[in-house]
Amino acid sequence: MAAPPPKQEELQPHAVRDQLPAVSYCLTSPPPWPEAILLGFQHYVVMLGTTVIIPTALVPQMGGGNEEKARVVQTLLFVAGINTLLQSFLGTRLPAVIGGSYTFVAPTISIVLAARYSGIADPHEKFLRTMRGTQGALIVASTLQIIMGFSGLWRIVVRLLSPLSAAPLVALVGFGLYELGFPSVAKCIEIGLPEIILLVALSQYVPHLVPLLGTAFERFAVIMSVAIVWLYAFFLTVGGAYKNAAPKTQFHCRTDRSGLVGGAPWITVPYPFQWGAPTFDAGECFAMMAAAFVALVESTGAFIAVSRYASATPCPPSVMSRGIGWQGVGILLAGLFGTANGCSVSVENAGLLGLTRVGSRRVVQISAGFMLFFSILGKFGAVFASIPGPIIAAIYCLLFAYVGMAGVGFLQFCNLNSFRTKFILGFSLFMGISVPQYFNEYTSVAGFGPVHTHARWFNDMINVVFSSKAFVGGATALLLDSTLHRHDSTARKDRGHHFWDRFRSFKTDPRSEEFYSLPFNLNKFFPSF
């Protein structure tokens, strides 16, 4: 017997949504306090990965040991807490965690390898000198985002974005970090792979198998899985599983190899210029400014993803520009305190909003409180910061995927049957992956980037810009979308531009006031346009 023909309503495509449905708590609706506190702690645990990985890579090259590494981690954590609060109260007001950024690693390493530091024999003295050099570069670089954000220049650029040009940008913000996923899991597969399997099981399968406890598993799967696998890794460590393993394996697998607990003081409060007065070099400042510009573009994509998972309307350009300005202030604070790294929107925490389906602003503000608390109580914070890297990388496999899919989701506004859409989308995604791959492969083989002139600062500027997948893909999509048949009314509709028309100004959609207005009636003094 043949199946009955489908009903007419079943043949209709899915409805287009300005706000993501099925979100449990949106931007302005906080969960109950006990749940909010636990969710805030979960955000803190997730952001620890980047906070630890970056100093672990940089500090030894700068000449520092475990003690210096622990202090840099604490400082980075402290500044991240301040910046997250500033962003949630005065910036975009989105639930975005502002933490360390991998974009700034390359120019920082360039500073570390500068000729003027090569003759310093004392490792601690070299650490202090290179730290002061990075501080000076970060302080100058921060002016780029501060000026572009608060002057409204970035608002002009954001107004050019359509769903078609935003899709590759946001997608590559998430998918472009694939190198930090499974390749890092495989460094200790016996703890990384169980973490992936357990996290997928707890967050996706168990909620349907055990409906009564489904919400708890769905929202707290990260904490549960990390606790279980971390305990498993601890038993492997004390049981002698890695006793005769190679040093590299022990570093990635053992739970007692980070050196953070022993190096961290019990109580300390990071303060500006704690490493001494910053030093300035014009070339290094230019290279760091290029990294700040790339971080600006990547953070724009991450902010768009955060607004989606917070079930808010698309972020108005003036609000986005305001948030970039405050992120510039965050980079300034990073330079003043000495974190050896700039800051941008934490991509993993943006993905966590999607995994938990909780986009509440209050949750992220609570997580900022945990950052400040554990940065001051060094020993306690170091315990959580010593979670093995492969466990964190396993979490990234899910969270980065959520951010990437936020970008893919914007294609619902576009006409995917249009050849113009297919070209712009396909070409920008391909170039966004292919060009940085060439730059990274060239650097890994030759030891320097494809652009290799006598001006090291110029080399760093070009190599940093074209090593960012989100920047290359997003810039390609924006350029093509803004120039290819731009006056064609059909093309305008195909790119989804008309869907975002009412969000290009703060006052044209009443929901913008609910989601993005400043607290304490500050909109009277700092209006959005």
TrEMBL record:
- Tell me what this protein is called: Nucleobase-ascorbate transporter 6
Q: What is its main location?
A: membrane
Which gene is the coding source of this polypeptide chain?
A: LOC125511227
Instruction: Provide the species name.
Output: Triticum urartu (Red wild einkorn)
- GO CC annotation: membrane
Q: Which UniProt keywords apply?
A: Membrane, Transmembrane, Transmembrane helix
Q: Which InterPro entries match?
A: NCS2
- Superkingdom of the organism of origin: Eukaryota
The record gives the membrane topology as: Multi-pass membrane protein
- Give one Pfam family: Xan_ur_permease
